[in-house]
Amino acid sequence: MLEAIRILKTLNVQLPRTVRIVLWSGEEQGLYGSRAYVKQHFADPVTMALRPEHAKVAGYFNLDNGTGKIRGVYLQENDMARPLFEAWLAPFKDEGVGTITVRNTGGTDHLSFDAVGLPGFEFMQDPLDYGSRTHHSSLDVYEHAQAGDLMQAAAIVASVVYSAAHRAEPMPRKPLPPPLPPKTAR
Questions:
Q1: What does the alpha-carbon distance between residue 184 and residue 59 come to, in Å, rounded to a whole number?
Q2: Fewer CB atoms inside 10 Å of the end CB: C or N, the chain?
Q3: pLDDT tens-digit map of 114-165
Q4: E strands of 3-143, at which residues?
Q5: What would the mean pLDDT of 100-112 be, rounded to a whole number?
Q6: Nearest to residue 60, comparing CAs of 45, 50, 74?
Q7: What is the dihedral of CA 168, 95, 123, 83, to 10 degrees?
Q8: How would CATH label the architecture of 2-16+30-165?
Q9: Would the pTM count as exceeding 0.85?
Q10: What is the rounded CA–CA span in Å between residue 88 and residue 160?
Q11: How far is Cα 154 from Cα 77, in angstroms, rounded to an integer?
Q12: Strand 120-125 to strand 70-74: parallel, antiparallel, or no bridges (unpaired)?
C-alpha cells in the first residue's frame, strides 16, 4: 500500500478525492484497529448510527494475504461493483488478473467497513506458501516477500485507487446492514 501511494505521488497525479492509507494493528486479535477506526469515524455497527464521514467514503481496498500476485477481487456480495472492477482490472489481464467474485472472504480489515455498509473489498492473491508456512509463523518475515509480486500488487492498487478517486460518485453500496446485537456479559 505504501508503494501504491508512492507511485501516485511520483506521477504527481491530482486526485479529486482524499486517499488515505492506514496500517492496522490488532487484526489477528479481532480486527481491533479497523473496528475502532470505523466506529470512531463512520458508524457503530451495534447501533448503526452513521457519522457524517460515512457518506464521504468512496471505497475501501484491502491487501492482506502476504506476498503473492493479485489475481482479482472479492466483491463481498456487492455485485454492483463488478462493472467497475472489470474495467479497472482489464489492463492487467496479461498479468493473470481478472477473477472477480461476488463471494465474501473473511479475516481481514475490509470486514469492519463492510459491517457498516461501506464498500469494502479484498484483493485476491496467489497463496504461495502463505497458508502452509509463513502465515503467523517465524517465517513470516521480509525475506519471504516476492519483489515481483509486490511490484505487481502496488501497480494494481495504485491504478484501482486512482480510478476510484476519479469517479464522480462513490462506489456502489449494498443496503445498510441491520445493527449487530450488543455483546452480552459472560
A1: 32
A2: C
A3: 999 999 999 999 876 655 555 666 777 777 778 899 999 999 999 999 999 9
A4: 60-62, 70-74, 99-101, 120-125
A5: 92
A6: 74
A7: 40
A8: 3-Layer(aba) Sandwich (3.40)
A9: yes
A10: 6
A11: 25
A12: antiparallel
Residue 81: pLDDT band (50, 70, 90) is very high
Please state the domain extents for the chain: 2-16+30-165
Residue 185: predicted pLDDT: 42
Q: Check if the beta carbon of residue 76 is closer than 8 Å to that of residue 121.
A: yes
Amino acid 134: pLDDT? 59
Task: Report d(CA 127, CA 178) in Å as an integer.
Answer: 33
CA atoms within 13 A on the CB side of 141: 3
**Phi and psi at residue 124, to the nearest 5°:** -90, 130
Strand partners, 101: 74
Contact 24, 109 (CB under 8 A): yes
Antiparallel, parallel or unpaired: β 60-62 and 70-74: unpaired
Quick: pLDDT tens for 38-48.
999 999 999 99
Q: Apex CA 113: angle with CA 110 and CA 114, to 5°?
A: 85
